[in-house]
Amino acid sequence: MPVSFRKEIKDLVAYKPGKPIEDVKREYGLSDVIKLASNENPLGASPKVKEAMLKVMEEFSLYPDGNCTELKEAISKKYNVKPSEVLPSAGSDEMVDMIAKTFINHGDEIIMADITFPRYMDTARIMGGTPVLVPLKNWTYDLEGMLAKITDKTKIIWLCNPNNPTGTMFSEKALLDFLKQVPENILVIYDEAYNEFVTRDDYPKDSVQLLKDYPNVLILKTFSKMYGLASLRVGYTIASEEIISNINKVRCPFDVNRFAQAAAIAALEDQDFVKKCYDLNKRGKEYLYSEFEKLGYEYIPSETNHIMANVEKNSGEVFLELQKRGVIIRPMMSTWIRVSIGTMPQNETFIEKLKEVLAPLGGCENK
Fold it and tell me: What whole-number distance in Å separates Cα of residue 126 and Cα of residue 173?
């Protein structure tokens, strides 16, 4: 009799990340490839990060601080919270898994948008929870629609603001109005992985203040995007001591490695680098908007470091043709693609190659 597997994972599909640069080089015999598929920082990380990592190069044989003491202290100082209200993790991905393990019982309902970070749904299903999907409205979270889905079985509500993959956001007023109507026994997870890129003034820029009035809120943050530490896998959560202490019970020991801890501390200290990345992203976003408009293609105004655009041709085919020309993007549903904002030369190369790809497909003329 063959080995059996849990029925909850039967219909799950393994996560498919953006294609690595090395694979594209080998597959197409290319020497130069740019990756604009995974929302990575095109400037990399702060020079201070590299200096910090060099200092721990001689410590390969030592386990990291399993409590992340110094990193917790750095984060707590930045946000004026207690270290006991902070929990670092191996990226946001690990924290999403730990939240599911900590809170979801079989049959619990988990409310989320229909187009958002897919790991929310997968972890709910792994734990036997029931995802309750609320369609986006004009590509943006429908908070009223989410409130209408609350039942006695609701355990968690996922909010991604700004949202991945659409790049859209909802305002501070909308968030506060929403939280006032959510029962206090429902955990509201506020994932703001892209908050450092936001340009709008009505965005809830000081989300940590929510914890004073809403102890059922958990704030999820990452060093992978603006801080450029995606390969090191380090993120963190800020929440009440009770929430943090219970999630900590299911955490794997030594999950945040020694290099990641040192890098994250150094990254927090270099806000000049953050400002430089913010300015570059803003310029790149405006450039791509302009080029999409010239081409006559619809795009979704974004508050992140990526943009979704409707190129009106099969996105999978466009994805493959761009790869052959040394540009990796992300195919989305139907005719939509998602492109990460790169350096200006990278953005210009993307537009140049996109025109080359779409012209034979009959889709590049100005409209």
Answer: 34
Q: What is the pLDDT of residues 260-311, one digit of tens each?
A: 999 999 999 999 999 999 999 999 999 999 999 999 999 999 999 999 999 9
Judge contact between 328 and 35, C-beta under 8 A.
yes
Whole-model pTM: value is 0.94
Torsion of CA 259, 262, 263, 267, to 10 degrees: 170
Q: Work out the end-to-end distance of the chain between its first and last CA atoms, rounded to an integer number of angstroms.
A: 62
Tokens at 11, concatenated: 């219909």
Give the distance, in angstroms, between the CA of residue 264 and the centroid of all CA atoms in the same chain.
17
Q: How is residue 196 annotated by DSSP?
A: G
Structural domains of the chain, with CATH: 7-44+272-358 (3.90.1150.10), 47-270 (3.40.640.10)
Strand pairing class (336-340; 330-331): antiparallel
- pLDDT tens, residue by residue, 97-124: 999 999 999 999 999 999 999 999 999 9
Pairing verdict, β 34-35 and 327-328 = parallel
Cβ-defined contacts of 95-101 (< 8 Å, 24+): 95/220, 95/235, 95/236, 95/237, 95/247, 96/120, 96/123, 96/220, 97/123, 98/247, 98/250, 98/251, 99/123, 99/156, 99/187, 99/189, 99/218, 99/247, 100/124, 100/126, 100/127, 100/129, 101/127, 101/250
